[in-house]
Amino acid sequence: MSSLDYRANLSTLDYRANMSLLDYRANMSNLDYKANLSTLDYRANMSSLDYRANMSTLDYRAIISTLDYMANMSTLDYRANMCTLDYRANMSTLENRANMSTTYYRANMSTLDYRANMSTLDYMANMSTLDYMANMSTLDYMANMSTLYYRANMITLDYRANMSTLDYRANMSTLDYMANMSTLDYMANMGTLDYMANMSTLDYMANMSTLDYRANMSTLDYRANMSTLENRANMNTLDYMANMSTLDYRANMCTLDYRANMSTLENRANMSTLDYMANMSSLDYRANMST
Q1: What is the pLDDT of residue 243?
Q2: What superkingdom heads the lineage (predicted)?
Q3: Which of 111, 136, 193, 230 has the most crowded Cβ, counting Cβ within 10 A?
Q4: In a domain? residue 24
Q5: Do 265 and 73 meet the contact criterion of CB atoms below 8 Å apart?
């Protein structure tokens, strides 16, 4: 606005200087022709007033057109900047969501790894427990076997001692009965131990099957969760691309609107310039006609 005021003041000073020179020449000519002085002054003053009024109107319209142009330019720049800020904000939001998805993905991965490790540890602990029970059964079996051998040997030793002390014939039936009873107890105990050993083996196999089942289930759950996470990651990627396309479309639309408005403003400015020139030519023509 200060530049326009400066130019307007310069134009006004040039105009007044020229008007003063013209008045001086007109007065010099009019001094020779005193009879028509009043008439010529009247017509010159009337033409000057019309010229000045029209000049003021044209300057006013030119300034208004310039101000409208600047205001529209500011509005367009504001809208372009707003579109840019919205674009950046949306970009930040999308990047934030992508990072959040990555963080959730990593957290879920850590959780799955933790569960897989826990399942492995539980499997190892159960294996150790089963090995302990199997070893305990073996040790119990060996201890019982040792006890039975000890008892059998004791009976044999008693039998031999009694053979020398007692009457062989009288004690034969008793000793045979005891020996048979020990043999039967031995066989019964052997059956019991075999049963316990087989039961431990069956329990071990059943527990092994259960552990294998749980390990496989954990693997299947891990794979299912992995597929779900990959599906979500792909969905987030597709949403990101779709949003990017939408933002590019809006940015291009804003650019097109900006260019269209620029063309309209330039067209109006050119029209104002043409109107200004046409009015100037008309005023010059009238001034020449008056002169």
Answers
A1: 66
A2: Eukaryota
A3: 193
A4: no
A5: yes
